[in-house]
Amino acid sequence: MTKTILHKSETRGHANHGWLESYHTFSFANYYNPERMHFGVLRVLNDDRVNPGMGFGAHPHDNMEIISIPLEGDLEHKDSMGNVATIKHGDIQVLSAGTGIQHSEYNRNQNQLVKFLQIWIFPNKKNVTPRYDQITLDVSQRHNKLQQIISPNESDEGVWIHQDAWFHMGTFDANIETNYQLKKSGNGVYAFVLKGDFMIEGQELGHRDGFGIWETNEIQILSKTEGSEILLMEVPMTL
């Protein structure tokens, strides 16, 4: 029997630090909700806006796969491995924190917000050597179809992480039907609407709504409005 959980956008945790405004789908920092700790190995889904010229100073992470998906603007990354890079819309960045790293993230634009998703995934291997990876994808390849952006395999499309997880993004015209076949038995899918409106397995979803589905092999997706954009995160349901 398929199981689902709905997280409407307005039920997310919210923090406004002036230079940073963040919405938390799952418990994070000062937002704590025992019913919203994680979805399987998906631990953090933060929807962040960073003001021009501002950012996160150097801070540590370990034993977490950290994925950044820029939606608008340019985000500069620096880390203790010596990587300095800028990520923008169409890029996907992965940081395998492993035994421990420090990194900082800044909006280097002086006149434009940075909007990005920061996603944390529990890894399937602990204490790996820290790793940084970044790619630029052709976003035209996600028009009316799902483009793979993350997988467990170095040889697959997108970037790879230390987990049996697959992420896809798609931008759809109105009234386009898409079926998503799960890659691995026992996994679930967390869908996050970036723009527009969708119907997934009979559930109406709007801007920034989240919807988790598990104990199923296939998901039916229908875009309801022109330019609707979605992120699908297939993840193991057991930690």
What can be said about this structure in brief?
The protein is mostly beta strands and 239 residues long. It has no helices and 22 strands. It has a seven-stranded mixed β-sheet with strand order 1-20-17-22-15-13-14, with no helix packed on it.
Question: What this model shows, in words?
Answer:
This protein has one domain (3-236): Jelly Rolls. Helices cover 0% and strands 54% of the residues. The chain is built from no helices and 22 strands. A hairpin with a 2-residue loop joins strand 18 (198-200) and strand 19. The protein starts with a strand and ends with a strand.
Q: Which CATH class is shown?
A: Mainly Beta
Q: If you average the pLDDT, what whole number results?
A: 96
Classify the secondary structure makeup into a structural class: mainly beta
CATH H level: which superfamily?
Jelly Rolls
Q: How much strand content do the residues show?
A: over 45%
Helix percent reads under 10%
Strand order of the largest sheet: 1-20-17-22-15-13-14
What kind of sheet is the major sheet? Answer: 7 strands, mixed
Q: SSE order, as H and E? A: EEEEEEEEEEEEEEEEEEEEEE
Which regions contain 5 or more consecutive residues with pLDDT less than 50? none
CATH topology: Jelly Rolls
- How many strand segments? 22
Task: State the helix count.
Answer: 0
Anisotropy-based shape: globular
Indicate the radius of gyration in whole angstroms.
17 Å
Number of self-contained structural domains = 1
Span between N and C termini? 21 Å
- Proper CATH architecture: Sandwich
